[in-house]
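Ticket opened by: R.M.
Priority: normal
Category: complex prediction / small molecule

The reporter submitted a protein together with pyridoxal-5'-phosphate and asked that the result be attached to this ticket for the collaborator who will pick it up next week. Submitted input follows.
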Amino acid sequence: MTESFLSLAMPGIQGLQPYQPGKPIDELERELGITNTLKLASNENPLGPSPAAIAAIQGQLGELHLYPDGNGFRLKQALSRCLDVPVETLTLGNGSNDVLDLIARAYLGPGRNAVFSQYAFAVYPISTQAVGAESRVADANNADHEMPYGHNLQAILEQIDDHTSVVFIANPNNPTGTWLRSNELESFLVSVPRHVLVVIDEAYFEYVQEPGYPNALLWRAQYPNLIVTRTFSKIYGLAGLRVGYAISHPEVADTLNRVRQPFNVNSLALLAAEASLDDEEHVANSILMNLAGQQKLKSGLEAIGLSCIPSVGNFITADIGCPALPVYEGLLRLGVIVRPVANYGLPNHLRITVGREQDNQRVLQAIEEVLP
Ligand SMILES: *Cc1c(COP(=O)(O)O)cnc(C)c1O
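Result attached by the on-call engineer:
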């Protein structure tokens, strides 16, 4: 008799569905025998990494036999300067996903729960349930709200109970692109019990130009239970290297450091991230390209008759008005990869990363061609 090896796994793990990433370009090209694929599926920076990051890595290739600096001294110094926070508040991760996992491993487990919104980033339930904790999901705003599908902070507060240890909030959220304003988020922080850690995931922070959008770091002193996470995967264009970080109370950082793998951030990632921080021009260009692209993509989608969820990220999630999977598949056949979000409970939507001007034109044309 063969064992069911899944049923031998820990109960929290048995109920998990694996994270569904954007389809890799290579995979589509292998399957269809095509080239010239456009991927707008994973919110990657279409400008690529900073040239300074590439140069920094090239000088290091002969040193790959050496372990990285397990404490990430230089990158932490650079972040500390750049963000104006003490070094002791920083935790580096193998992508910010790693940091989210560290938070779950340190603060969640059986008998505890994490609260987050419906339509929130898919890693929150995975990290929570993987350690045997319960996910408590708060209803999001309705489709006709001024911030449709966005986080409803009142509903999140109502889900917090005596067993809640962590609240995950993405600002802006992925896959919706919706955001929370400074005043609403601060009144939320006032209301959360001090023993509940509030994780504000700011993966798209550097892109956001919207007035009223908060920099959660400014609340650090008032709310010691606050953890802010950011990443080099999005605007810094280093998704392939995997490096992100958290800013928290030093004691939280010390706690996370106890469960962190000794060399969780590799040597190339450390160098590339450090070099990227100095390249303000690359960041500024990325912001400008995204703002212009957002506008074009949104007006183009609306011109085809599709409505878009308001977004301040580098992506737009559009209501296709019918099941989106066939449209997604039709786009694949045209060599365009976008992101279906049915696994988030949005079966009629597609999430499209803002690309370069020619990319945005191509995806708009392809959607028009494929739409039933
Ligand atoms: C992309 C993203 C992340 C970052 O992932 P990395 O592990 O840093 O690549 C975190 N949170 C949200 C909401 C994201 O969209």
